Each structure stands twice: as C-alpha cells, then as structure tokens.
Amino acid sequence: MSNRIIIFIGMFCAYQLTKCQTQPTMPSNSIHEFTTPSTTVATNQTVIKVAMLVAQNDTDFGLPRRNSMLRDSAGAIPLALEQLWADGVLPKSVNFSFEWVYEKCNEATAMGFTYQLIRDFGADAIIATSCMDVPPMLGHLAANFNIPMIVLGQSMMSKLASSNNATYPSLLNIVPNYKYMAKGLIELFQFFNWTQFAVVIQSDLGNVSGGCDYLDNDIDSQITLNYKARIFNVQSSDTDSILISLQQRARIILLCFDDKKQLRTFALHLFDNRMNTKDYVYILPDYDMTLSFNLSLDPFWVQKSSADLNALDGRDADAEAIGRLAFWWHYDITLSALSNRNYYGFYERVVNRTYGWPFFCAESECGAVSNGSAYSIILYDAIYNYGMALNESFKQFGIRRETYRNGSLLAANNRKPFMGLTGYVTVETDQNTRVFVLSNRKNNSKQSPLRILMQLGWTNGELNVTMRNDSALMWSSRGGTVPPAVPPCGFDGNGCTVSVFEMYKGYFLSGIALFTLIFGTSVFCIVYLIHEKIVANRKSNLLWKVPFALLNRQNQKRPKRTTEQSHHSLRSNQTNFSALTHTTTCSLAQSKHFTLYVYNGEKCIVRTYGPTALAMPLSVAEMAECRTLRLFDHVNLNRFLGLSLDGPNLLAVWNFCARGSLKDVIMSGSAMVRDVVFVQSAIKEICEGLHFLHNSPLQFHGQLKSSACLINDRWQVKISNFGLRWMKSTQKTQIKDLLWMAPEQLRKMGDNNDLVDGTRQSDIYSLALVLTEMVNMAPCWQINDDDDEADSDDSEDGQAVQQENAATSRRRRRTTMAQQRGEQRRSTGRQRQQNADEIVYLVKRGGLIPLRPMIKPSLDNLNPDLIHLIRDCWVELPGERPTIEKVRQKLRQMNAARSINLMDHVFGMLEQYANKLEEDVHERTRELEEEKRKSEILLYRMMPRQVANSLKLGQSVEPEHFECVTVFFSDIVQFAALSHQMRPLQVVNLMNELYTTFDALIDEHDVYKVESIGDGYLCVSGLPNRNGNLHAKECADMALKFLNSLQNFRILDHPNERIRLRIGLHSGPCVAGVVGLSMPRFCLFGDTVNTASRMETSSSANKIHISKETHNLLIENSDRAYIIESRGEVIIKGKGVMETFWLLGNSKNGGGTWP
Fold it and tell me: CDD domains given for it (predicted)?
C-alpha cells in the first residue's frame, strides 16, 4: 500500500504542477457526462457512474489513431448493457452514467484526470485507456480507492497479470497478457524438444514501449536463452554480426519486430545469408493481437507502395522464402461467435451507437467511419464481464454503492465463464482468458489466410496441447519431420566426418586389440568358472552321498502290526511321554519302507526305495535337487542327510524325530496334544515349514499328510518326506496315501495310481486335512477296520494278492456308489465309516457338494476362525484356495493376543498365576469402569441427562407435562429424487455429513434433538430443561443457522445439486416421556407436535414456516428484531384455516442470506 501511495502522490503532484504552469490542457468539453436516454431517473433506480479515459491522437506502437476508442469501439458499451438487461443479468433498476476525458498516453496527466474523475464525478468504475503504459499506473490508483478498473484494447502487459491479485486487486481483465504468450512459447519449444533457440527483438519507437519490449521482459524472466539480440535499425552495421551469431548458435529463432517493414528487411538479410533452408524455423509472435482479429492480413513480405522503407525492390519472393519457414504465434479468437449470437452487422451497430446514447459523438470530434474496430468486441465482452461480476456481487450483498464500488469484490467474482462475442470467455486467477495458436500460410500466398495448426492453452494451470490440423501439414515443406534444435552435424557443420576411421585409426586399432583381450579374458574366466562349478558340485555331492557301510541298523524288534490294542495301551498312559516315545521308536525301527539306523552316532530314519530306483542313474537335475535338499536348514523341516547309492537298495536318509509322526501322537490320545496351545504351536510350525518349501526351488511338497509331520523330543513339528519325486515314482502308491491328496491330483492319476506332480494349491488342500485331524484329535476320514488291517499287513508275500483283491473290491464298490452317497447325505449326526476306495472316488468325482471330512472340534478355546480357514483351504477350485502366506497371516491374526510358543506357554502359565493375578484384577476393574463410562455416554446421547440418571438408578420415568415448548420439524426437499440418483452408501454419507453439521449447530443453542428419521429432523426447546419463553427464540435462531449452513454445504458426488430444507415451527403445551422397555425412546406427545409437523409439510423450500403462537413469542420475548412476513390464512391439513408466517431472518444476520 505504501508503494501505491508514493506512486500516486508523485504522479498527482506532476499533474498539479503541469496544471499550474500551463493551465488546463484538455478542452473545455473534454469531460462529458451522460446517463440513459430517459429524461429523468426514477428515485428507486441505482445509477453506477463509469469514468472513461479515451486516448486522443494516441500512438500504439507508433501507429497514430485519432480518438480510436471513442470513434470505432465505444459504441459496443451500450450494446453490451442492453444485452445484460435483456439476459436478466442486471435488473432494469440498475442504470449507468458515463463521463470521459481525452488523454494523450501520458502517465502523469492520465493519473491526474483519473483522480479528478474519482473526486469530482464520484466514479464507481474506470475504463482504462488503450495506451500501453497508462493502465498499470491507473491500476495502482484504482487499487488505492478500491474501484473496479476495466482493461481493454492491446493492454497485454504482464504487469497486469498477477497470480495472487495482490498488485492489482480491483482489476477486471479479459485480455491475454505477454506473460502467457511467453509461457506458451516456452511450452511450444518444449513440446517439439527445442532446447536451444535464439530471440531477435526490434524496437525503435523512442519513448513509447512496444509490445516486443514487454514480451522480451517476460521471456527473460522465465528462461535462459541460447542467444538474444536487440535491433533498433535493421540497416545498421550490427545486423551482419547478429546474423553470423544466429548461424553459429541457433536454428529455432523467435523474431519479434514492432515495425513490419523492418521485419521484411531483416528477412531479406536472412535470405542473403542463406538462412532460408529447411533447418531453420522462424516464430513470429502477434504482440498487438492484429492477427487475432484478422487471419487474412497481408503477409509481411509484401511491399504495398513505393512509400515504404525502400522503393519497390521486387524482392517479395525472397522475403516470402523466409515466410515459408515461419510460423505465427498469436492469440486465438474467432469471430464466428458473432453469428452464434445473431450479431450480424455488429460493427455497423457499434458506429451507429457511437453517435447516439450515451456518447452522442459528433463527426467533427470522432470522424466519419463505416465500421467499428475489431477491438470493439473485446470492449463488448469486457463490459458484459463487468455486468456478470456486478450480478454475482449483488446476489451476495445487495444492490448498494458499497457493493458495486468494491473493486476487490468484483474482481473476486470475475470468474464465471460466459459465451461472448470473442468466443467462450474463461477468466483464470491470473487474468488469463485465452489460448494461443500456431499458424502458417496456406499455399504460402498473400491471398491465402493463416491456417491454425496447433493450439496451446491452460486449464487450472495445466497445459493442453491440441493439433487443429494434420501434424504432417505443419512440416510438409521439411519432409514431414520436425527440425531439430541442433543440426545433426552441429551449427558449424563440422559434426559429421566422412572418414572417421582414417581420422581415428590408431584409436580404432587399440580398441579392437583391447576388445580382443577383454573377450579372450572373458572366455577364459567363463570356462574357469564352469570348471570350478563342476568341481564344487562334485564336492557338494559328497555331502549328500551316504556310504552304506556307515549305516548301522538298530537291533530292535518291530511289532508285527499296529492294532487297536497298541492304541489302547498308549491311551491308558496318556501322560507317560517316555512310554510314548519308546513305542513310537519301536514302531519306526522297521516297517515296510522305513528302518531305524544309526549314522555317525546319531539316529536316523532310512526310507527304502528298492533296487529298481537304484538301477536308474541320477541326472544332473536330480543331483542338483539332492544338493539343494542337503542344504535346506529350517527349524520346521526335517533334515535330509543324503542318499545311499552303494547298498543293495536305494536308501534316503532323514533325521530321526523321537516322538514319531503327528498321526501317531494324535492316535495316542496324549494329554499334551489336547492342549490348545500345543495345537496352535503345531499348526504355526507346519505352516512355517510349508511356507519355506513354497518359496524354495522345490515350490511344493506334493504328499503332505499327518504321517509326514514328525515331532522331535522338544515337541517341535518338522515336515518330512519332501522332494525326491523321481525316487517316489518307482514305488506303488497305496490307496490310503491318496486320502490327503487334492481332487485335481486324483483326477490326473490313472487306474494304477501313478504319482503326479503336486502344486502349491494341492498342498493347501492337504494342509486343511492335517488341520482337521488336529482339531478333531482323530483321523480325518473314518475308515473301516478291515481296511486298516489289510493296509497294515506289510508282508512281502501277500502284497500281490492284496493289490489284486483291492482292484476287485474297487470294481464291486463302484456299482453301489450312488446308493452309498445318498445314504451319506442323509447322515446328519455322524460321518459314516467308508473304505478308502470309496472316499478317494467321491473326492475325485467332486460335484456341487464335494465330499469333505466332518469337523468336530474336540478342543476347548479353539478359535472359530480356524474352522473357516480349514474350509477355505479345501475348496474344490484350486484358484480359490488361499496361499500359504495368507494362511500364515490369518493365523497371526487369530493368535495375535496369545503366545503360541510351547515352552513360553508352559513357563507363562506358572508366571501368570504367580505374578499377574493382581494385575489382571486391576485390568478387569479398569475395563469395567471404562465400559461403564462408555455406556453412560451412549445413554446420555439417547436420553436427556436427568432421564438417563433415573434409568441408571432403576427408577421409573413418569411422563412430564410442559406448559409451553417450541417444536422444530425439518425435511429435505425432493429427497427421494436425490436418493434415486445416488447409491445407498452415498446417501448414508450425505446424511451423516449433513446431520453432523446440524448437530454442531444444535450444541450452540438450548435445543434438544429428539430424533432423525430418514431425511426428517425433530428438535424441541423448552424441555427437558425449562427456559421460560426463550424456547421460540432458540429454535428460530437455530433454524436460521440451519439454512445459512446450507450455503457452504456441497454434495461431493453431485456438486451441481444443492440441499434445500423445509422447516416448520410451532409453540404450545407438550408431554414428554420414555416409551418401551426394549430399546426405550424419549418421545413427545400432544397436538403441538402434530401442528409443528403440519407447519413443516406446508412450508416451502429453504423457508421457515411458523405458527401464530411462535410468532407472538418471537415478538414478545426476543432480544433482537426478527424479519417476519405474514403468509396470511392457510388451510392446514387436520387444522383448518390458520394464520401463519414466514421467518426470514433477524437483525443479526441481516435478513437471511440463504439461497
């Protein structure tokens, strides 16, 4: 503000000094004042005084124009005003008075005249002159008085463009500026990847600043140029040096000349210096908007007469050769908008209105013209834009002088787009309203108008680039390719050398020798690394090769079979872990495929694969797999010790787990496995081991089952029997081993039960069955005893007979499968015992309800989510099963509140009873108090505090009569239609945001919210706390705030929709009480409630409908004056004829500002 005051004082003092020395310089009739054609102005009309500064004999860029604005442009002002009245933008009660003064583009005198117009005339708005340097100075003066200033003509200076409107807060401008012209040029160069370019500026206007000066300043402020030159006279000796510098530094050249004749002369110099090749691109900015209004102007290379800079030289063709390489960068405006609004003959009407109201300019003063200026449409749109800003301001603060004279307010409301004569006008925050285009000449002839090729504009700060024509047309004269900023051979042409090899022969030979050396070294290194890897593999193979001579067989007698008796003997001593271990060890000492050995002093389990597998030589991949298995080291994987290849049979050696398999432990009925912590720990360890396998080179287990999950002496679960598929394929798969396989695996197997590859999804299915065994503490499938005995018979002599009998049995059983499946569906209390063949067949068959084991949890405190996880894991479709990572994640969520480490669990139990008992008591007490507090808060939100306190004490709440209260009802207008346009979740979010806003307003008043049902809102004042006769005032103030809050309330998903309320108020007696035992509610009863509801239903959108009783209370018992309008007598449903009123506002909010 201080800078503005200093500038103004300086200019005004200069003006006063000039006035004292030379007497008034303006003619006696230089100030004119006119209003509308009416002879008198009605008393109820508002007259806005508009001051105009008209350039007299002005020289814009050195071109004399006598009274140009008043003569050929000012007639657009009354045309725009009439259109504003016709469109309803301004009411007919708003009138205008004009007063103007001639000035000669002098900053000091223009400041003085403007100050005189503000002081004496009382100007409410200023239309600045079209001179280049005057508007910025007037902008400071207008800002000082906060008077709106309208800019028009060729005022494209960046001084008038401010991103935050801090310099010129009262400016109303729809004319583009040099800042965006320069910014658009930079974006254009970046679009074509022109990183190096030059600028040539020509200006010789003396003290008058040309458009190229402003463009030069804006380009300097935004980029660093490769080269820039300033020319005052093209015929000077500096021109040759500038051309040489251009040839050496740039091919993309921006030419900005204030004088078109000088531009033609410079183009001839370019031609003479052979700068007319396709490597050059010349950009010509339209700094004075000449091309913006007339794309058919004569090109610069045409000499019109011998009175030009030189006599006719006949070199138009030479200058045209440069024009073929040029593109025009200009402000985009199309005069087709005139026809869109039926403004044929607009320019003739401008001239006619100049001689009429409100200017009445005589021909002696304005001259005789036939058509208006092209700038008249800019003035038309500027006045129309000013009228729209007035309209928006009047809506907010009413029609008064403080509103239409408030420049900053009008500038803030100068953002609404509209269709003007210059096209679609959009004013951004920095006063940029148009886009810029790149054009060239069609057919490169002077009769051919400019052709728009490319358009660049901004929307909310974002650049938009649009090709208006085929991009190939732009570079048709250059072979259809975009010229580079730097030529391929450089600016001096020395970048391309034909005999590069000869020039750098020594370097080439040295490079070839170096390459040969590097290549030979690389080959040697590769061969060496391969050799080392082979040696390393041989050494690694020694790790997994177990000599048969080092395997010592345990001398333990194996029981003939594991019968039900052995299980009963184990169950009889459930807590004797040593007996369990001994029995398991004996059972594993020797079996059909497993034998207990001692290797290097440690017990190990050896799996026998027979001589057939031994006869097959190991491939490279199989040996690599053995090395991988030998290196596996995970706490939940049983360690693979290696293979024995020098014995009578192929043997796989695994680490020994003293407690046997998970299946043995479950069948033993041990108390340990019935502990939920052990089960959780075992499940976690199985998943961890399976997760390691799925992320290892093996990628899957393939035969996961409870017998493959071993338990060591520390009760850790370790997965075994993974990998070595090429060895397992040599053995016949037993039918009971298929019970844990996934359906997709079973379908791939043939009648001979050939082993197939597993998948990660099949492992998840097998995991589900293992978890089922752990949850049920029993085998997942109920199999007949004869199958157990048959499968447990492992004598070598009876193996062939068993296989043949099994095949015959399968054929017989399949004939009666349908009857057995129907019997299974009818079984509800228990799972029917089946044989293994039948189960495998039903699982393989699938169907809508595939066969799965029954889940009967036998553990206490088992998380129910575990059962859901099991069912998710054994779904029929493999793709729908969760991955092992998701299974682990769900298990962590289930066990987040408890430790699943077995040893920690044992010691934690002791510490819990010894040290944490008192802490648990305090914690429970605190939680109880916290829940009590939450319950009280919830109760207080549902009931009045005194009612809630009575309910807490167990007392009955008697209904209470209140002599006089005010009941408030509100409803959303057309809520059903709005809900139909939105999804249910959007409706819920909308109502939540709206009611949250209303609830915050209720807290500011002595009003109690009773309930909200759908879009209905019920409140009351005067109960449960009596407040005398102030209840009507409280409800009225709250209702007004409700409507005011809707001004800033927006629907996120439907920004064009607005919430409108219909409100009704009524005062009278009422009874309140609590109704019901289940979900009790605090309800109101009485005719007052019904009448208030009728007030709401008979109200209008965004209006407050009150009864006569409420009206009387507001008049008699309020400390402020309310604005109330009588509605008269209205027929109210169920009430007959009632006298009602509209509550419009109060003295505090000024009569209501809601829409």
Answer: CHD, PBP1_NPR_GC-like
